[in-house]
Design brief:
The protein is an all-alpha fold and 714 residues long. It folds into three domains: 2-412, Na+/H+ antiporter like fold (Up-down Bundle), CATH 1.20.1530; 420-478; 482-642, no CATH class. The protein has helices spanning 2-19, 23-44, 46-57, 63-81, 84-88, 91-113, 121-130, 140-145, 150-182, 190-219, 226-248, 252-270, 273-300, 302-305, 311-341, 350-358, 364-375, 381-412, 420-447, 452-467, 475-478, 481-499, 510-530, 532-541, 547-559, 563-598, 600-627, 629-657, 663-680, 705-708; strands spanning 683-685, 698-701. It has a two-stranded antiparallel ribbon with strand order 1-2. α6 packs antiparallel against α15 and α25 packs antiparallel against α26. It is globular and about 85 Å long.
Length: 714
Amino acid sequence: MLGALLCIAAFVQVLARRTSIPEATLLSLAGVAIGVGYAALDRVAPTVAETIFGLLVAQELPAHAFLAVFLPPLLFQVALSVDVRRMAQDVAPILVLAVVAVFVATFAIGLSLAPFVEHGQVACLLLGAIVATTDPSAVIGVFRDVGAPGRLIRLIEGESLLNDAAAIALVSVLVAMAASQGGGHQGVNWLGGLVTLGVSFGGGVVLGFVAGRVLSALLTQMRGIASAETALTMALIYPLYLFADEVLDVSGVVAVVCAGLVINSQGRTRLTPRNWNHLQLVWEQAAMLAGAIVFLLAAVRVPHLLAGASLAEAGYLVVALLAALVARLAVLFGMLPVLTRMDLCEPISPAYKLAITWGGLRGAVTLVLALGVAENTALPLPIRHFVANMATGFVLFSLLINGSTLRWTIRVLGLNQLSPQEQALQQQAIALSTVEVEATVRRVAQAFALPPQIAAEVNRQYHRDLRIGAVELDTDEALNERDRLAIGLATLAQRERDLIPEYGDGIVSVRNLDAMMRNTGQMIDAVRSEGRIGYNRVARRILDEQPSYRFARMLHVRTGIAWPLESAMIDRFELLICRRAVLERLRRYNREQLEPLLGERMTGVQDGILAARIEAVEGAIGAMRAQYPQFTAALERRMLMLFALRQGRAALETMERERVVSGEVHARIRQELDAAWKRAVERPRLTQQSADGSAPVCPAAPSDPERQSAAGPD
């Protein structure tokens, strides 16, 4: 069965790319087609139907197992891939969309249906909670394909991270209430349900945060082995989900999401860039397969869920769809402007709000929740049929109508259009890339002995193709100096953020890497709000001596106790040296990559800003050399030796990969490098000495566990 599901998922992906139909829509259609085919064939040839479709349709997996098996990897991957820092800027609207909107939709749908439906208000609210959760996998791919703005995608991703948890928790409370009323008991009430919901949500947050911090610490013990790091993250989600749900009785979904966000924020400084990319790719593939399989398995049961649907329920469905639409519009156009007036979030344009409204597709989670209600024998049979039929119809309408028109909606709203500034940068980028591509085409044509006129014709065609749809803009007019400087400084800060993790692997401590990553994130925010002044202010902040450093220095001078100052000086030295190296690379990046885009004058201004930052760093390092020259020299030797050993390991790995040395030789040299690393990583000692550094530096002391965990130049 698994092989069949994977084959269907693979072909659906190809078909989605060729037809521009959302993958979720095609998966649901494939699942429904399998279910209908089984039902039709079962009437005329039961044996054949069982042979062809039996394993897919007649599964024994209960609905709650769908959530436990497939939902954790889906949510963990989204949490692992989002930009946590940028998403934090929109935390208020995301929480409104993810939590408040679920309650608004639940009550809007439930109260709209209650006057017309005989099953009672709780059953209608239960339906509302089931269809209140949106499916990001059904819409984010479409948004990316059509070039929707990054902020719009972040809002949808942020909503999807928590609305599943809110909806699942609310559904569990309402199911308990419906079962209690159906059995004549009054043990569950609204107050108790809301308290349970709050405890479940809050407990999941705390548990996920703790689990994420623990796993982040364990990642530093994996010696840079990518497969071990990935396996460790995979070992987390299911025990965490089950422990939260079954043992602590808190939200496992929230726990998994929070753990993923913590690992996302800390993993980049605990894993090498290459290993972090490997981790992302593995989880992306796992989430894709989990999403496709759960969609197919749930959609296969759609014909069964719709069995016995009546014409009256079609009318109820129309009421539910309209109520859900009005509820979503009310949240977006009624509540979010209030947050803006309270300075809790930046304004969200009406076009964004309409796209979010129409893009609120329902998917696999809604179907699985509907299956759970249909299988729950504690509920009265009429309620089970009503909720299952209505929720299934809601999902089908959402995927077939909203999903098939979403691309058109985004284009009509103009959300796939670039701003004048972005168009100007696009033109510059096209012009620069065209020069390089044309030279490459000529070299390739010469290498394959192709006629020069063929190369010239290909270059002309390439240039024409890239110019299709381009708007002629005056770059200097579209981008004034303020815009250019803001774009340039934000780009430099983002590039700085990307370079910092390269100095990990035990060379620079994790806490220093974390501090520098936070600082660059603050620089990006400061550029957007204050421009050059904010950028410089935040960049200088990290060079300030921390109170702990000043206290340790005073303690050393007055009492002779050296170890607090040793630790503080090592941390400060590492931070300054790493910042110095990154800034030099940024200057080259500015000259080589940004000057063609932003112009010589603007990159000259940026080069001056970077030079001033380098001068400030050198001043701080010079102050350390002047006060503790021998200890600083020992730190410099240690740092350079660690870099040398890491470079030696990289060269050895290359030689082994290219078969220059044998595996036996590689293993022997690697042992020597590991032993040298353990010696070099140890800290020098700071003895009782005067400010002129007259006393010698003592032999090495035990090193920081953060570095020792990376023993061996991994």
